[in-house]
Design a protein that fits this description.
This protein has a six-stranded mixed beta sheet with strand order 6-7-9-8-5-10, with helices on one face. It has a four-stranded antiparallel beta sheet with strand order 1-2-3-4, covered by helices on one side. The protein is an alpha+beta fold. This is PH (Pleckstrin Homology) domain-containing protein. Keywords: Membrane, Transmembrane, Transmembrane helix.
Amino acid sequence: MNSFTESQRFRQWWLWAIMLGVTALMFVMFAGVAGLWLSWLTILLASLLLLSCRLDTRYDQAGIHYRFWPFMRWRTIAWTDVSRASVTQYDFVGYGIRWNFGEWVYNIAGNQGLRIETVAGKRILLGTQRPDELRAFLQTLPLPVLRHQ
């Protein structure tokens, strides 16, 4: 295995239920009100933005590559810049891009991810829905910084 790639999207049923509920509530409350098209447009754009959001990660011999589209371009952390990395389970930290207790968190769903600490002291948590496959790939790398749990 030369690389491990994962692409995650917001697919939680409850998230879409909330969006649909808010839309229905607005329709009932403001039916016939002039200027309602602006509210509908706002909800439509928010829904489309949520649909398009995705966390892409790629791990290969060179390092860790990740982006949170459409908000962030590809970023790369070379393995030589990593002081520690481990696949871990964590408490709920929220969804999206977050600053949480001294580390950047990129998470779409779930509570598992790769926790990274760089040589410069930067801490990053990249969510994953496939922790076992990620762990298996990391074990193929000849890197002493990886802690396999």
